[in-house]
Amino acid sequence: METQRCSATGCERPAAVALQKCRLCREHFIAACYEHLEGCARRLQERPFREADGEAVRQLLAECLGQAADLAQNAADLGNLERAQLLDIMLWAGEVSQRLRRSDRRAGSVPIRLRSEKPGRPWEEQSQAQILSRHGAMVECTHAVETGELLEVLRLDTGQQAQARVVWNRPKVSGRLEIGLEFVDAVALWDPD
């Protein structure tokens, strides 16, 4: 990437990252992220917000966040202002992502069994799905899980099952973890409405 030039008109600086298939120097990347984030925040306020729009916004936010994190971690000559701007972009992208919901959520209590088939560390445990949406759930778990890890979710009262990806996890004071699961396939284990 360093041998290629920034694709912004008139810029002669070397490209540092790619955003939406455009090679950009750090200055133009930061400016483009702010422009995209402002646009995403505006689109979230529009009604109706279409599902197809949501997926495009999700991908753009993930790309801004990922590239900003990579740049912040790997660029050796960042100044304080650039470092602060990259942190701001990561925080803002995360905040907008949290506001972007594919479906409503509701509190519930559905008995489930979680199973990990991770090589060398398979496990299985019973739990409760507590915050439900069409696309996933928040559950408690006693086993250590990593973001991106795939788990099998079996609904104990109906026998339905689905594969889910861990999208976040946080420890509780009790020693258990709260984990956010997103179904990999378009399945409906519960109807949160």
Task: Write structural notes for this entry.
- The chain is an alpha+beta fold and 193 residues long.
- Helices cover 33% and strands 30% of the residues.
- A hairpin with a 2-residue loop joins strand 4 (123-133) and strand 5.
- Helix 2 runs antiparallel to helix 3.
- The longest helix is centred in the N-terminal third of the chain and has 24 residues, at 51-74.
- The N and C termini lie far apart (47 Å).
- 21% of the residues are buried.
- The model has no long low-confidence stretch (mean pLDDT 85).
Question: What structural class is derived from the secondary structure elements?
Answer: alpha+beta
The N- to C-terminal Cα distance equals: 47 Å
- As a percent range, the share of helical residues equals 25-40%
Overall form: elongated
Q: Can you count the helices?
A: 3
Concise structural overview:
With 193 residues, the chain is of the alpha+beta class. It has 3 helices and 8 strands, in the order E-E-H-H-H-E-E-E-E-E-E.
Supply database-style keywords.
alpha+beta, about 190 residues, single chain, about 35% helix, 6-stranded antiparallel beta barrel, two-stranded antiparallel ribbon
Topology:
Elements (H helix, E strand, L loop, with lengths): L16 E3 L2 E3 L1 H20 L5 H24 L5 H20 L6 E11 L6 E11 L2 E6 L8 E6 L5 E11 L5 E7 L10
Antiparallel strand pairs: 1-2, 3-4, 3-6, 4-5, 5-8, 6-7, 7-8
Helix pairs in contact: 1-2, 1-3, 2-3
